[in-house]
Amino acid sequence: MADRLAQVSGHISNAYGRGLLAGEVAIITGAGQGIGRCAALLFAKEGAKVVVSDLDATKAQAVVSEIVAAGGDAIAVAGDVGADDFPKRVVGATVQKYGKINHIVNNAGFTYDKMIHTMPDDVYDVIMKIHVRAPFRLVREAAPYFRIKDQSNRSIINVSSTSGLHGNVGQVNYAAAKSAVVGVTKTIAKEWGPFGVRANTIAYGLVHTRLTAAKEGGASIEIDGKKVALGIPGARPPVTGASNPNAVTAFADIPLRRGATADEAAAGMLFLASPLASYVSGHTLEVTGGRGI
Q1: pLDDT tens column, 58-83
Q2: Is the residue at 235 inside a domain?
Q3: Which of 14, 32, 179, 201 lies most in the core, judged by the most C-beta atoms within 10 Å?
Q4: What is the mean pLDDT of residues 82-102?
């Protein structure tokens, strides 16, 4: 035990000089834009070798180019996280390039909103597939590289939402999936904890990304040949600072009176992956500005 404590303390103290994730390898899904992109850049800045995965190959490669231009190390692995061959491809590419995996951030996802009485089975099922089945399958594929007792810093981070914690109108599929993610994470924490692996959930409130922008903006993705509109009908744009009078009414349910930036959201991921959270496992970190308390 003393040796373990010394190792953790040494890792933390050394990390400040070399980066909190120096020499570690992180797979981040949905990393072509938004929170995932910010996390990829932040992890790389802290010394991690980053596997940037995204449905859009061009966007994934663009993030890799940013990291490399800044002196970091990254590769792109494009693909649909829900595809049967995705876990084997991304784990294989990671191990072939870097020889190990320290962190998996299951960030990829989207919303497909409809009211309960109008939601068809396929709309419910695809959200469960992407937000619950896909993270499970990726973690399972990576098991041989996590279930090792070698004192390395290893973690799984799964993304949830206030919709998963409290439910949300028009999001029964998303709420169910994001609630299930918490149970998946806690189970990983219990099964893999003896190997030193930490597993945590990060639950976001309002983060200003394409998923929370006004649906009228026209952002969409194609899923199984269908165009899925993204965003929230009539969503308000970001406001600058709590002193802005518009914040009082626009974000009255958020104590900080604003939504988060993608960089702020990514910072929570970095904390959970870093040795600063070396004794945090099975936890759901709420990054919500106080919403829902």
Answers
A1: 999 999 999 999 999 999 999 999 99
A2: no
A3: 201
A4: 98
Tell me the two tokens of residue 259.
């939504």
The answer to whether position 50 is within a domain reads yes
Given 124, 145, 174, 204, the catalytic residue: 174
Q: pLDDT at position 293, please?
A: 87
- Are 35 and 209 in contact, with CB atoms under 8 Å apart? yes
Domain containing 176: what range?
A: 2-206+261-287
Q: Tell me the CATH number at 145.
A: 3.40.50.720
Element (H, E) at 105: strand 103-106
pLDDT of 195 over the 50 cut? yes
The answer on pLDDT for 262 being more than 90 is yes
Active site residue 174: yes
Does residue 148 lie in a domain region? yes
